[in-house]
Amino acid sequence: MKHRHLSRLRRSLALSAGLLALLSTPAVAQDTTRTVTIAAQPLATALEAVARQTGVNVLFSPGIVAGASAPAVSGRMSARQAVDRLIARRPLRVQRQPDGTLLVLTVTTAVTSGAAQTAGSLPEEQAGADIVVTGYAGSLSRALDEKRSATNVVDVVRAEDIGKFPAQNIAEALQRVPGVSIVRDRGEGVFVRIRGLGASFQVVTLNNRTVAVNENVRDSGQSGRQFRFDTLPSELMSAVEVVKSPRADLDEGGIGGIVNLRTFRPMDLKEPMLNLSANMSAPLLAGKGNPRLSGLASWMNPAGTFGALVAAVYDERTTRQDRVTGVGWTDGRIDANGDGTLDPGTILVPTSTRPTLEREDRRRIGLNGALQWKPDDRFELNLDALWTRLDIDYDELTYSTDFANTTARALVPGTAVVTDGILTAGTVGTSTQIGRETSTLEYANWLIGGNARWHADGWTAGTDISFGRAVSDTPTPIYRTRLLGTVGNVAFDYGKAGERLPNLRFLSADLGQPRTLPGRRIEYRVNGSIDTERSAKFDLVRELGSVVTALNAGAKVQRRDRDFDRRDLNFTGGINGRRFDAGFFDPFPVRGFLDGVDGQLPRRWLMPDTAAFLGAATGVATLLAAPLSRSDLRNSYDISERIAAGYARVDFSIPAGGMTLRGDIGVRYAHTRQTSSGYADNGTVAVPVSIRRDYGNWLPSLNVVGELTDRLQLRFAASKVITRPSLADLAPRLTINSNPTILTAVGGNPQLRPFEAWQYDGAAEWYPAPGGALIGAVFYKDITTFVFQQTRDFALDGATYRLTAPQNGGNAHVAGFEIAYQQLFRGLPSPFDGLGTQLNYTHTDSKGTYATAGGAIFRDALVDVARDTFNTTLFYEKGPLGARASYSWRGKVLRDVGGAGLTANNDSPFGSLDFDVSYKVTPRLTFVLQGINVAGGRQWQYVRDDRFSGYTNYGPTLIGGVRARL
């Protein structure tokens, strides 16, 4: 018995100064009283905090404390007294060793003085393979402890995970969490999905503070409330929590969940430190090396009452995407034999295709600073600030084939190929537009906050104030240089998504010749968004020692303002109808465009020189000086939200027939005052409008954990949740597509109601060994109101547009299950005892009620929901070597439901394989090699009948670097 328990002891390291004091005078260190301030938290981390604050070694087996929570402890006391208070009412005891070390043991374990030793001197047969201390495996174990001890459903990714996996930002680190998948843009994770629900259903907080969000200023497809994770480097974060079931004290607004980002703070680190890293990445498709530098420095005074920290990141990233997009399909009739009469029967017909080369040069800077002051056990003050900036130089080159197959004599007689009611091939007269878009985009974020906490006589009061702003701007205007004209006949042949690209053969035109197409215009756009977030909250906790362990109450006021402005101009003078010579064009900028995929289509074409075309344009100064147009006013808006919320929560722990029921029950009330300001168009002028709405939501929540044994527990959670509509959807705006052959428009709706849902979670969690778990969970979300995009005809200025605008829908549901498995194979013979694995799978099913423009009702799946996702990770850590490989996959995502199935492009399944190999040359110096998307995963899109509608390839990225700890 003695050796079985000692073989699983884990050492909690104190600050280096405290450890030296312990080794030199252990008895004095043990008997000396210190100021101890420990918040309620998992027991394992609370015991580590005792070691850190007192300088006394505390040894314990992870298995005997796993899943256990500790109460808040504060005051002047010895390390032994602090540990006794933390383990009170648990079948644990403390035994002091001659060197001053404290052993935390079960009440049945006996350790003689002669056998007891410090962890640093445990013999090999005792310090066996079950000890989990540091590295990636250690971080997984600590994250699992946090999940196990929480009352609500939560997953945690700690800094070791983020820092040691290939992760350009936090989103990419989160894709290995059960139920989480990400949305990529130009190869980098941008948005997060939780349990299949889209990014608009998640709330992102930073240190539990609501954050401002950047807007998409490159085009009119705005993001609304979705936090752009590409603006935030992963090195600035110490941990990330994915909250899947709420508590009453947490911010409302996330039916999918809450992603809480935690920055580093000096006293959370075990010792003063200086960490540095330098990497060089090589995106293989872009063919250019990019540096990435990061550093973190922290300091604490000898008394341990004041600390300071600063962290910084600078990185550059060159991206390239080879795409085929803009593929259009319609239901129509064709004239196959060219007799001037349309054939009977409607079939599916292609109408357009747009091969596109996208390139970016990104520069990102991130700074984080923190100050902590704990003068005594009653008071704590934290001040922190985060600032990031992302600059993007964007360059897009494209051409299109636009044709009308559904008119008489459009098709060359005898060329039409119709298969299963689909026109898959033919020859048709075509118009083509060649375009180049250039711009500089700037995204800046900052969040400044401070909080204070007082504790005395079982009462804890806390307050937090924060101010954040996200600025999205185009310091250099977006220029789109266009050439447009007819190019004769084009032979086309379309297949299915995932098979090949379309075949497009120009029979009488050469897109590489300067005079093939006449000029059309230069489109000019300036775009800006300022999102401002202010909040203040107050919390009060009364700790009790009975079945009711704590009473919690608090209030929060929050103000969000979104100011979005956009201006568009068209420079046609000196350009429209003119044919330009070779001096107005640049050489095609890359090699191997669309290599590695079948399909015969032009892969090199003219590249307009934007500066040369601007020099040829006339009347530019007059247009720039003109007042804002009707369309400019329609595209701009202001949204204001004032939110006042309050909550009450009861924490409980109930012994029940050999098991313990613990959890919380509470209610939150949030009142929202929303003002949407912008312009409506009466057909002649743009008229200013302002619409105000007030609504309130009562949001009860219950979280219960049943601890059946020390290794098995069950969970149940029930709550009412809301998601407020996208800010862009709430705007009274109208955006018209600039393409003269594709008449579409996008609008807003200030009368939208928030999504509302009752959600339920159940889980069984088995923890067979330290760092290991097998978890099965089910979830159900009953959405009583939701918002969907409705398309209808809209007349403006004599033209009829297909207008897509948000509408309130009926009810919906989201149901599914998760399975997660994690194990450290410490029982395997050497050298295989360094192996470990993480596996998880999530299945999501959804259904919603929709209304058509004509009022008809139908049921279909919810849009933007990934039905299936899985992640698998295999890692190895032993000695100086560490290696990890991870594959993340998500199934198809529907973006078009009901109707003809042609109004949006759906995403085909996609997977990404990443790896990380590190070698520790010395305890302070590590070399790293990483790879992202090393299998070369490519994204495909489809419409009805799996018809091809899009393709994207951004290629693999390799990263090499060094990490140093000084």
Written account of the structure:
Helix content is 10%, strand content 55%. The protein contains 13 helices and 50 strands. The strands form eight sheets. The protein has a 22-stranded antiparallel beta barrel. A hairpin with a 2-residue loop joins strand 30 (637-656) and strand 31 (659-681). The longest helix is centred in the N-terminal third of the chain and has 15 residues, at 135-149. Mean pLDDT is 86; it is low at 1-30 and 109-133.
Distance between the termini: 41 Å
Radius of gyration: 31 Å
Summing up helix and strand content along with how strands pair, one would put the structural category as: mainly beta
What best-fitting shape do the alpha-carbon axes yield?
globular
Q: Low-confidence parts, pLDDT < 50 over ≥5 residues?
A: 1-30, 109-133
Range of strand content: over 45%
Secondary structure tally, helices: 13
Largest sheet: 22 strands, antiparallel, barrel
Kindly state the percentage of residues in helix: under 10%
Number of E strands: 50
Q: Give the overall average pLDDT.
A: 86
